[in-house]
Amino acid sequence: MVELRIFGCPKSLLNGPCGGAFNGKCEVNENHCPWLGVLERVHYLDGAVLFNEHPILMEIGKIPSRDVKPKNSNFWSQVEKGRALSVEFPIAAVKNEEDVAKIVSQITPELYTIPDNPLGYPHFSPTAFATHLKHFGIEVMPHLTAKDRNLTALTAELKTAVLFNFEVVLLATGDWPSLALPSRPVFDLDSTNMIRLARFVFNGVLPTKETFEVKERPRVAGAMNPHYKPRVEAQRIARKLMAGAELFFTQVVATKESVTRIKETFIELKKYINAEVPVMVSLLYPISDDIKPLLRRMGIQTGDDTFEEVLEEVKALDVAGGVNLIILSRNLDVWLSLWREAYEKIKEVLR
C-alpha cells in the first residue's frame, strides 16, 4: 500500500474522493475535489492501491481472530444468480407502525434497505428501524454513514448488526449535513476504513481490543459511483475490496451509458486487484422530467432512456447481482402503486 495525504479535503478523509464530488466539485465548498485530481493523474504506482488505514484499525488488526462465516440468506442466493431485488424502505412515507406493517405485508423483495438520513434530512435510526423489521421475519440492510458518528458510535451500530442478525450492512462516508439541518459533521472514518472496522467487529474484535463470540456475521457492502471516471472509481472499489467489501450498491443509475460505465470500471479494476464481486444496480422509478434537474445537481447523469431500456442494459451486465429499487414518494398509497408497476417490469426482465 502507498500512503498519500490530501490536506485540501474539507472532510479530512484518509481515503477519497467520497461520493460528494458533484461534477468534480466538492459539495462542502464547491471547490474542485483535490482527491479527483490526484487519482486521475496518479492512478496506480507499481500496481499498488492508494489506501491509508486508520491508526486504531492498524492496531486492532494485530489481534488474532478467526474469519467468521457470513450468514446464509435468500438475498445472497439470488445475488449469486444475478436476480436479486432489494428495495429502499420508504422512510419518508411512513407515519406510524401500521404503515410499516402495511408495507411488509404487500411487497416481496429479497432485501429491504434502510437509508441513513439521506440529503441530511432526519428520519429514523437505520439500525433501530432494521431491528424492528427483523421482527417481521424479513431480510434487511441498514445504511451506516460516517457523517453523524464517531468511531465509538459506529462500533456500537456494527455490534448491534451482529446481535440482531442483519443480512447486510452498507457502509458509506455520507453527504455533508448542511444540505438540510446545519450540524457539526464527524467523519471520524471514511467509507474504506468503516468497511475495515466492520470486518473486525463482525469477526468479534472491538477497537478497545476486547473480543466477543460471533457465530455468523452480516455481509459487508460498499457504495459505488458509476458517475465518476472508471479510472477513479476502480481505485475506490479496489480500496474497499482490500478493506473487506463483499458486495457493492451503486448510486442511482438513470441511463444506459451509466450502466456501461459500470462495466468499464470493472475492466479498469483488474489493474489493481483480481476479484469477482457482485453489484446491485440502483434504479429510480419513475424518472420523471421534474426530478432530472435534482439528479443532475447531484452528479447523476440523465437522458431520454426509459426505465425498461436501462433495465435491459443491467440484465446484460456481467457483474450484476440484481436491482436495488428506489421509489420516491411521500404518499404511501402512491408509493405502493409505483412499487407494483416497477416490480412487474423488473420481474419480466430479471426473472
From TrEMBL:
Hey, what's the signal peptide range on this chain? none
UniProt keywords (A-Z) are: FAD, Flavoprotein, Oxidoreductase
Look up the EC number in the record and give it.
1.5.7.1
Q: Give start and end of each Methylene-tetrahydrofolate reductase C-terminal-like domain.
A: 8-45
The cofactor named in the record is: FAD
Alphabetical list of InterPro entries matching this protein:
DUF5981 (IPR022026), FAD-linked_oxidoreductase-like (IPR029041), Mehydrof_redctse-like (IPR003171)
Pathway per the UniProt entry: One-carbon metabolism; tetrahydrofolate interconversion
GO BP, one annotated term: tetrahydrofolate interconversion
Q: What SUPFAM superfamilies does UniProt report for this protein, alphabetically? A: FAD-linked oxidoreductase
A single GO molecular function, which one? methylenetetrahydrofolate reductase (ferredoxin) activity
PANTHER family given in the database record: 5,10-METHYLENETETRAHYDROFOLATE REDUCTASE, METHYLENE-TETRAHYDROFOLATE REDUCTASE C-TERMINAL DOMAIN-CONTAINING PROTEIN
> This protein is called what?
5,10-methylenetetrahydrofolate reductase
Organism of origin? Thermococcus barophilus
